[in-house]
Each structure stands twice: as structure tokens, then as C-alpha cells.
Amino acid sequence: MKRLLACLVLLPACALLAQTALEIDPAQSKVEFSVDSTLHKIHGTFQVRRGTIRFDPETGKVSGELIVDATSGDSGSSARDHRMHKEILQSDRYPEIVFRPDRVEGKVAPEGASQVQLHGIFSIHGSDHEMTVPVDVQAGGGLYTSTAHFVVPYIKWGMKNPSTFVLRVNEIVEITAHTSAHTLHTTARAAR
User: CB–CB of 101/117 below 8 Å?
Assistant: First the structure.
């Protein structure tokens, strides 16, 4: 009872002793990709399947995952997309692209804008890759929207090079992930 009263009086301080859980809204989230080629820049999207993220603002520890539907990749050309799925992503064998964060560098503000670095494991095409991603976060009223920019060196990571004798495709794909998430709950943890 004393702890409850203390939290009511010192609510901002008690918020620091909380872990926040967020559920990603797939309908309001998407992943965009672009890659340069000798003819033009190719743009496309992937759909987010689901995701839940838990983070502790005090320690920076993060858990959860963001799951992207690898089979949803769409560049606007059915022939190019068929080749991308069959030969490069092999999305029939590897239908999910997953990011599992483990820590955040910087503070995520409960209201307003934040710029942080999110570290974790990026799993694609059957392999795990450690990475740190810069993320812009906007929070307000229990809603968190974020934009992350990073690159995927897909050929270095074991995927097939789509270049031909005439057409050259860059070996790096630029990724922009847009997510929207709402607070599931905030749970207090024991003070140290």
C-alpha cells in the first residue's frame, strides 16, 4: 500500500521503474526497399505480419520481434517479383524476415520525438545478422510511430546476385521500415 501511494505521489519517478509493452499494428506499418540498377532505381514494399516489443526505459533492455512477410515483396513488376521470390529471397523456403531487438541506446520519450539506436538480430534467408539501426520515434497518447533506415548487403549475406550481362544491380538494398504500435501495458518492476 505504501508503494502504491508513493507511486501516485511520485508518478514520474515510478514511470522510470516500468517496462513498456507495445503491439505493432500491421495495417499501419510497412517496409519499403530500394535498390539501384543500371536502368533505374527499383522501389518496392513488404508487409508487416506482426510484432510485439517490450522495453525498459531505465536499462535500455528490449525484447520481442518484428516479423515481415517475405512473400509479400512487391516491386510493381510481376516478372521481377517472381524472380526475387524464387531465386533471391527464396521466400517459399524463408517466408519470414525477423528483427529481434535486444537493447536501445538513447532514451525513448513517452511523449514527443526521440532518436535512438536499436540493436538486435536481423534474420533473413535463413541467417542471423547482428545490426544496430537508427530509429526516429514519435510518441503520444500510448501510440508510438517509428521510422528506421538501414541497408542489407544481400549478396554478402548469401543471396543470389540478380545482375546479368546487360543489367547490373547494386549489391546493397536500402530499407526504410515504418511502424505504428500502441501500448499494450506498462508493468512496474521492483526498485533496486
Answer: no
